[in-house]
Amino acid sequence: MVRLTLDVIGKSKNHFKKKRGLSFPEYLKTLTHLHLSGKNIEDIGDISMCRNLTVLYLYDNQITHICNLDFASNLTHLYMQNNNITKIDNLFTLQKLSKLYLSGNRITVVEGLEKLCELRELHLENQRLAPGEKLFLDPRTLLSLAESLHVLNINNNNIDDIKGLTVLKELKHFSAADNKFHRMEELEEVFNHWHQLTRMDLSGNPVCKKAKYRDCLITVCTSLEVLNGREINELTRQFLINWKASKEAKKIKNDQHMTTGQLISYPLTSDFNVGLGPHPAHIHSHANVQRWKPQQSLRA
Predict the structure, then answer these.
(1) Domain residues of the chain, as ranges?
(2) CA distance 41 to 184
(3) CB of 204 closer than 8 Å to CB of 234
(4) CATH number corresponding to 2-250
(5) Which terminus of the chain has a lower count of CB atoms within 10 Å, N or C?
(6) CA 26 and chain centroid, separation
(7) Does the pTM exceed 0.85?
(8) CB of 199 within 8 A of CB of 174?
(9) Whose CA is closest to 79, among 52, 114, 96, 104?
């Protein structure tokens, strides 16, 4: 088992470039970037002497638990993708964190980020989930990120429902390729709230097989510049927006026409078509005919 300690940092050829006149402890205090990817690290020990860290690279290791980072109050970038992490926790003190990379782990619930008010990017793609499992995003965490999050990547996580993401109104880049989205109406409902969105990737979802799904999303996300890796031509966007507006106006006009027609025809129906019995004049006429019928001649 490899435990991340100060000794591991000292033995790393990438790091202990001792500055002239500095002892090792003094050197550690000057570190702002720590590169320890691919070192078979399974656990994070006490490295609190690196108190000025702003960027920490721990990807491609064997870490199972996020811990002992509470000292790093200046940390802005944390790279922990491709480890064995199952739970997001112990990050509440990292209030300057702006980019968090946790893709390729074993996370099933996105939680524990409620204190990270500066978080701009969250990368969670390709979690190694058990068969039938899907990534769940805790509503409390989403609400806490509503004003800060600009980039969200949840590719390939068996997700089939994104209604909870509606609160993320500051999103600019959204990647959700290779999931299970199939209801266009649900997507429209969410995207109607994302007025800052410029890039989106939904490739590999069932909804992409629906007719004119791309045209529909372009008219809903009016700020979108790139969809599924393809740029959106501004002339095409305006044409589709105008076409949609014309179609909706025509529908409203038809609905109004049908409503007016119903109001005019309804009294006519009630007067003449409903079974209210024969007209009194008809009854009177019939009675007269019966009384007028001549008697049979007595001379016959």
Answers:
(1) 2-250
(2) 44
(3) no
(4) 3.80.10.10
(5) C
(6) 45
(7) no
(8) yes
(9) 104
